[in-house]
Amino acid sequence: MNQDLESLLNRTKEVISEVRSFSLECLGLPIKKGFNDFKEDGQNYFWVYVSEKRSLNSVVNKELQNRPCFFDDREKAEDFSRQYQSKGYDTYVYEGSAHSGEPQITLSFINSSIYRKASVLIHESVHNFLEDCSRDKDFSKIPYDLNEALATYIGERGALNFCKIHYPSQVIIGLKNITFFEEFSKRINVYHSLLQVNYANGLGEEKIILDSFKKELKSMGIPCKREDDFNNAYLAMFINYTRLYPIISNYFSDGRRTIKGLFGCSRKKKITKFERLLKLREEFTLVL
């Protein structure tokens, strides 16, 4: 390892330590797993999303259990995807960086902004917390979309508050990111509603809606990298959790509920509070 990289790695570890302390003290969220060792080429992972061709809901069965299937090998992921395609389903294989589970410090992580480092650390720790507080339950009962929406909201807001205290120059990055995501989630909700009405009433207008949606994404700087995969499985991957972002935001907006209140309590209360969020999701699903 050259001297410059070693210096950046040491600085990154200092930031990680600061985020750990902040997260536990201010959010009540312990950051226990990963981000201890450096790995120049972090191993990527693969999620396979499955949905019906005329539905934005992920397929639920004994094998899928309301969550995408995880693979650490591309070939196995592609093979699983083909199996479900042959059964008449839409599938999408998502390749992610080594940031979840037991994440390591990668070059991309080192080179990211301090705000980004904080948001990734907190985001992944939310996933780990939710899995831990549900260990005595059936983890498949925690919907992927709510899990991801919570991790996204808390990761972004937590990172913003961290930077306000420790790195004020990074606050502008956080504000821009949050503003973008809030606008993005509003537009997502519009297309989600259009597609749901289309499928429910058999209007056959999905191609028109999807073409318009792709243009909308590109106008926001989110190009569709794999045009052939722009199907309902792809949409189920990010539409369903992105559209929940405003719900999570509203949940905390009245000042009576706080992020620390969600995490900083006994194990039994953690489960109770999370189940309350599940109920919240059910209520708003009727509206959205």
Describe this structure in words.
This protein is mainly α and 288 residues long. It has one domain (3-35, 113-285). 60% of the residues lie in helices and 6% in strands. The protein is built from 11 helices and 3 strands; from the N terminus they run H-E-E-H-E-H-H-H-H-H-H-H-H-H. It has helices at residues 3-27, 74-85, 107-111, 114-133, 144-166, 171-200, 206-219, 232-242, 245-253, 259-263, 267-285; strands at 45-51, 69-71, 90-96. The longest helix is centred in the middle third of the chain and has 30 residues, at 171-200. The chain starts with a helix and ends with a helix. The mean pLDDT is 81.
Short description:
With 288 residues, this protein is mainly alpha-helical. 60% of the residues lie in helices and 6% in strands. The chain is globular, with a radius of gyration of 20 Å.
